Amino acid sequence: MAEMMELIAQAENDLLHTYNRYPIVFDHGKGVYLYDIEGKKYLDFAAGIAVFAFGYGNEYYNNALKTQIDKLLHTSNYFYNVPAINAAHRLKALTGMDRVFFTNSGAEAVEGAVKSAMKYGYGRDGKDDHEVIALEHSFHGRTYGALSVTGNEAYRKPFGPMAANVRFAKMNDIDSVKALVSDRTCALIMEVVQGEGGLIPAQQEFLEEVRRICDENEMLLIFDEIQCGMGRTGSMFAFENYGVRPDIMTLAKGLGCGVPVGAFLMTEKAASLTLVPGDHGTTYGGNPFAAASVNAVLDLFEQSDVLAHVRDVSAYLEAGLDSLVQKYDFITGRRGAGLMQGLIFDRPAGDVIKKAMDLGLVIISAGSSIIRFVPPLVISRENVDEMLLILDKAIKEVFG
Ligand SMILES: *Cc1c(COP(=O)(O)O)cnc(C)c1O
């Protein structure tokens, strides 16, 4: 234990203090388990925040990356590379979008999407004072453009003014959207299932109406699928559950399953009206290594029926979480979609999360009173049972 505590003390002395981290130093992972540097084993229901979809140490994935490391890591975007050419083509086929831009993170994908929307507005009427509508409780990332559309006042306030003119409407309240639309509005950005903000799925009617409002007002509809995409809800992308298509979409997290890679994608119609050479760029984005991770992830989706598995095991997880809602009156509900679930407490739940880690379970929060479950997509029913046992014990020890 001393060694781990010493390392943590050193880290706290050296790293900028932007996180209150849990006192664990992880060493390696295998399947759906993580091990700290003292060999303690943890069942992982966080997956690096909805990232490690196929678990740790996946042989196929690791070998694909090793092969690419020995071939070519980086070229810059002045040239073409085969992994990125293939990854873009495959993502187009999967999403139904027509154009792909690779980034290094989710926030950068959102930056690109917002810049595209602004340029689209500029092209539409020649003005440069356009507005974007975003939703309260949304999370789109921490860089300036992404922060500007993030619906959490506490995150934005110390950093004002923001990079873009943004108005915030309410999720699943179409009148709140209508009230904000003006001839300055160029786009609406939203998560199809809000993650960070509390595991809130869009309602069918809301999404259909938002699509209609965007069409009627020549606005672009941007879906941020960074957390809810890549199989997490049991469909490849959450919007497929609704049959409502965006003009621009963003991906990251599960896209590279551990390699930092994101993307924004758009329809040809949107692309023809927005970014042109000189408007946007990145040194690393879509480099051969990052793109190889995307191809490996897409191969893994093709090799087994992960989506059917997610639908099955998430129903099982939902039932298990619902039984906790029944059992404890301070747990007021469960919500989410697929393997993106939240358990809602009527009080701060941070101590339950800490206790669960003591007991060998990694879970995370979404706000102070919601416990978030975003496990690897390959989690089994037995893993769900194991998780529920530990969680129940943690809840009892903290609140019992
Ligand atoms: C995590 C997340 C982001 C930001 O991604 P980073 O890679 O952390 O920059 C943006 N949007 C959503 C919905 C996310 O969950």
Summarize the structure.
With 400 residues, the chain is α/β, with parallel strands linked by helices.
Report on the structure:
The chain has 14 helices and 17 strands. With 400 residues, the protein is of the alpha/beta class. It folds into 2 domains: 2-58 and 305-399, Aspartate Aminotransferase, domain 1, CATH 3.90.1150.10; 72-303, Type I PLP-dependent aspartate aminotransferase-like (Major domain) (Aspartate Aminotransferase, domain 2), CATH 3.40.640. The longest helix has 22 residues, at 306-327. The protein is globular. The structure holds pyridoxal-5'-phosphate (PLP).
Primary descriptors:
400 residues; alpha/beta; Aspartate Aminotransferase, domain 1; 2 domains; 14 helices; 17 strands; 40% helix; binds pyridoxal-5'-phosphate
Write the layout of secondary structure elements.
Blueprint: H1 2-14, E1 26-30, E2 33-36, E3 41-44, H2 47-50, H3 59-71, H4 82-95, E4 99-103, H5 106-125, E5 131-135, H6 144-148, H7 153-156, E6 165-169, H8 174-178, E7 185-191, E8 193-194, E9 200-201, H9 204-216, E10 220-224, E11 248-251, E12 262-266, H10 268-271, H11 288-303, H12 306-327, E13 331-337, E14 340-345, H13 350-358, E15 361-362, E16 364-365, E17 370-373, H14 381-399
Parallel strand pairs: 3-15, 5-6, 5-7, 7-10, 10-11
Antiparallel strand pairs: 1-2, 2-3, 4-12, 8-9, 11-12, 13-14, 14-17, 16-17
Helix pairs in contact: 3-11, 4-11, 12-14, 13-14
This protein binds pyridoxal-5'-phosphate.
The site of pyridoxal-5'-phosphate (PLP) has 15 residues, from helix 5.
